[in-house]
């Protein structure tokens, strides 16, 4: 209990937040670094994975290969990738910040599989009759993809992005081990100084950030699901919800 109170005291101490100013070594500055790193890696992964996932989901080509490839990427140890790329870039590209580049590449590799899986599985879940009807109306393949398949697949696409973002937020914590900023710096500093309040405080901050982001994406995913639900299904849900209220007077009679 004392450890939890100490961790909360560390988190809510204004001094640790830079006393009102966002400083590089303060919690606020490290939080911004963590968010920037996450946004950068997920953004690059989106540019790579979404078009590929849409192509696979729309055409069905190379599906088995990509499934096996993404499964292999999920199995890669992130910490091992960090040290591998850090060592590689430190010796071959001395003019670049090896640590930053190693972290970005490793987190992109981590982020791609979930986004890719969400994209192609979302498009594959679209009813084939709907696609055939769109072709019968004279729509081009691009119009079918953009106006029919992607909107209907949006809940699964958002779900893939959601899983990817959470993985990157959690894994970016270990970037501190090779000198990159972020909330992992708090935990690493606490380990070096045997400051358990700081260690637990850093872990709680990462957890809180992940929960907040997960809640935001859960809301987006729900809105996407509601927006793509058939009108009849939404009316049925509403009737089912109102059924007990309408049945009560009949019982009393």
Automatic annotation (TrEMBL):
Domain ABC transmembrane type-1: 31-217
GO aspect biological process, one term: glycine betaine transport
Transport is among the record's keywords: yes
Gene3D superfamilies named among the record's database cross-references: MetI-like
Pfam family, one: BPD_transp_1
Subcellular compartments: Cell membrane; Membrane
InterPro entries: ABC_transp_perm/SBD, MetI-like, MetI-like_sf
One GO cellular component term: plasma membrane
Mode of membrane association: Multi-pass membrane protein
Keyword terms, alphabetized: Membrane, Transmembrane, Transmembrane helix, Transport
Transmembrane annotation, as ranges: 37-56, 101-123, 144-162, 168-188, 200-224
SUPFAM superfamilies in the cross-refs: MetI-like
Region (Disordered): 230-253
Family that this chain belongs to: Belongs to the binding-protein-dependent transport system permease family.
PANTHER family: GLYCINE BETAINE/L-PROLINE TRANSPORT SYSTEM PERMEASE PROTEIN PROW (PTHR30177), POSSIBLE OSMOPROTECTANT (GLYCINE BETAINE_CARNITINE_CHOLINE_L-PROLINE) TRANSPORT INTEGRAL MEMBRANE PROTEIN ABC TRANSPORTER PROZ (PTHR30177:SF33)
Full protein name: ABC transporter permease
